[in-house]
Design brief:
single chain, mainly alpha, 2 domains, 74% helix, 0% strand
Amino acid sequence: MTAKARREELLAYIADADESKVDALYTLLETDIESRHYELTPAQLAIVEERRSDYLAGRTTGSSWEEAHDRIRNSRK
């Protein structure tokens, strides 16, 4: 069974599972689920807002993932 098929089976099962089973699954996966949530510090948020403002005002331009990836690779050489 492929990962996609397993996901679909799990989603279908969870949709109709009783509360105790949902709670058990959540407990099993809680650490992974919570590690996906994070908050920016005020300093990080200020950087994001400044860069967003510069981009929207046309003072900077964005880069594609490929361009950013190439710059990172070239900086390591």
